[in-house]
Amino acid sequence: MADRIVPLGEKRLMDVKLGELGSWLGKRDFTPNGVLASIRNGHDRYYNKYINVKKGGIGGVAMLLVGYVALSYMWEYDHLKHDRWRKYH
To answer: What parts of the sequence cross the membrane (predicted)?
Structure first.
């Protein structure tokens, strides 16, 4: 049985070909409500895949924690870079 043809607006990002990327981005909803809905959908997908499972481990929470640490390090990198000891010679 052949797969049904999915309209470009309903495809996920990983299913879009590189040549279709511009028109796919044009079909996205960039209004404040659309952005909030996409953030909510992303959170729900992450929560259902990694947190809300029958036999859960520490993987989903650890992934969230590592992401937070990496993001906070990137935000503070300029400040940390200037605090290093330097050789004045």
So the answer is: 56-75
